[in-house]
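Give me the fold.
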Amino acid sequence: MVGRTVSFFAAHKYIVYALFTIITIFTLYLTLIPLRSVPGISLFEYNKLGHFLMFFGWTFMLGFSFIIRNNKLAPLFRIFLAGMVFGISIEFAQELLPYGRTASVWDAAADVAGSFVAVLLLWGIQTRYQSYLKPALIKNNINNGNTLES
């Protein structure tokens, strides 16, 4: 089932790009708007879980986008750093905003943890499900680096 899901998203790269864009906008919106503007969603009762899930999704989609766009193994450490920098930057931005948002070390830790778990999942996909990626990538004419070849 995981293999088919990987194959589907590799074959439909624009869905991956759209999801990455939506998650980026959603993450920026929810982390930078005034707290009183956040709708009463029960997920916000579990703030750290929300941070973990947003940055897991953002980092995972960034890495998967890289794989399907470049037909290369994703540079996992750089992708992890991108997720970490994105999360920490948002925390700094919250501290600078004039309407009551504050930076939180624990929010940043949840962001980094979500990014780390996403990179672990990307590593698993790259190592275990590589054969599901190849046919879709070749069909999409993304075969420019041939680095997914075994």
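Residues 142-147 have pLDDT under 50 and may be disordered.
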